[in-house]
Amino acid sequence: MVKYKLIYFNSMGRAEVVRLVFAQAGVEYEDVRIEKANWPALKEKMPFGQLPVLEEDGRLLAQSTAIATYLASKFGLNGSDDWEAAKIQELFGATSDLVNHAIPFWTTSDEKEKKKLMDAFEKEHLEPLFARLDNVLQHNGSGFFVGKKLSVADLNMLCIIGLFSSMFPNTGAKHPHLIEFKDKIMNLPNIKKWIEMRPKTDF
């Protein structure tokens, strides 16, 4: 039996989509949460000096998208064919770009600068992407982002829509289809169970 260990900090962050894949698949794993004070001593042991990292029977795999889609392929959550798998990668790329654009306001300690950066982020990046995601979801017509069944793309969108609609409720309110989608995925039995039992942390 394969033994999985997911290594990340004690937060949701870039590892939560991987945890959701495990939850939906009903596959057991060790959820290792590193305290930031202990990170410097472990950093050089990680493939690229970053987290999350998946350990599978002693082998290490880094980068959250690689981990999530690798596991999704094993657990039947990475689309029905190569085209759908590519469309899933496309959506991961779009949301990764969004998160990268958010880093400046997450990392500044100046409140005036943070407000300025958040306003610019919402107008220049979040609103346009939410509009495009809304179109993708509606155009696909199945209630999922890719294909006709649940995929890791939907689990990733749960994280992205959930985070940014809570931080920017005005933008979220403009896209009720996305909010309805988020709520639907949150209430899938295995996902709901995980959300109820997971450690309570800031994102």
TrEMBL record:
Belongs to the GST superfamily. Sigma family. It is an enzyme of class 2 (transferase). Keywords: Transferase. It comes from the Eukaryota. This is Glutathione S-transferase 1. Residues 2-79 form the GST N-terminal domain. GO terms for molecular function: glutathione peroxidase activity; glutathione transferase activity.
